[in-house]
# Entry
Amino acid sequence: MKRKRIASSILSMVMLMTFTLAGCSSNNDSASPSGTGNEPAPTPAPNQPAAEEKHDPVTLKFISWKNGTYDELYDLFHQKYPWITIEQVPVTNSQPIMEIIASLEAAGTPADVTEIDSDLITFEQNNLIEDLTPYIEKSDIFKNAKFPDGFFETMMFNNKKLAVPMVDVPMWVLVNKDLLAKHGVDMPANDWSYDDFRNIAKQVTDPSAGEYGITTQPEIQMRLLSSKAIADGHAANHQYMNEDLTQSMLSTPDVMNDVKWFQELVTKDGSMQSNAAAEEGGNVTKDFINGKTAFAIGGDWVLPTLKEKATFDWDVLPFPKGKVSQPGYSIYGPLALLSGSKHKEEAFLWLSFQFTPEAQKWKIDQGANASVIDPELTSYYDQAPIWQGKNIEAVKIAQKNAKIQSGLTVPGWNDYNYNNILNDIIFGDRDINDIIPETETWNKKTQEVRATLKQ
# Structure
């Protein structure tokens, strides 16, 4: 009995201490700013999310050619930023972007973001686009992403970051595997050379069957000849430009020999038809989809047609390797923030969103390159439905080795006649020596234009 009284006494003391501590706790809570009187302040549930920040709805006007094709990406952006809606302002009938910007400004409904249809310098000199540097420096997306060499440099002028790539458009050598197999030729390896390209093209050419090694298309000289000059160490950049993009190397002896090499595909090898010969045959060899040529140059824009309409087994290869490297060819579509925008912070969110994992994966699904160096994105090429059953390693190599097309920040670029003159030489009968005075004239012109630009 005595033990029971002792245990009861101890229990009473414990309960008293518990109530005392609880009272102290209540008094402490009531002393906090959130307390009222002697009542404890309410505490949030452990897993209750913080209240979402309120935003006023914003509609961004985006000037773009991507009529209907990027609606899914607009939806992904809206899911991430529910208060922001993208309204595309379509570009129709080749109307210059500057005219669209001006008309919207005049109507009192200025655009916020635009793709660019010419050199960036013209937009910068007319004060139409923002310097993105301060926005990029504050952006966690840009701080945490790793970008390829030249990512910013190709869109900089006067130390200003004038744009970022809306999309990185890759290019590959398209291969008609059925035509190769018909002539006993296996699919080349990804480390193939320009000599391999030339020899195979000759081997599969059969004029009697209307079959040729190479498609008669401007891209062969515009993309592949330009890449060969870099691969052999004859130029530092595409379009035969030097390291700092101040002068063309097109008229140098080494690059002239590269031009002759491609010219001989028509005049000596017969593996590629001239424009006149192609037209005489009904232009069949001017389009890879016809199945009459083994090699062509293509980018993401050809994939839907090939998947839907090609009646032969096709695949892709990276551009061949040369004597010093194996560069590819990539086009950056500039995306710029307009100075007249009334929603600059929200507009920059649209720019920076392009480099998030979800946006990058969506673009890979469309056949574009990843613009961000990330093992997760590289692995995603293996999962992308568009590349299933194709040479995925070639796609990865093309992305890794890509050299970016020059011109966006080169003064006087529109006067540089490299493309027309090379088409006329390789697919026509123009004298190759015309390259020399044309190039010398432009090299002088670009320096003169540069001197007139405001800094």
In short: The chain is about 40% helix and 15% strand. The longest helix spans residues 2-31. The CA atoms of residues 189 and 317 lie 8 Å apart. The mean pLDDT is 89.
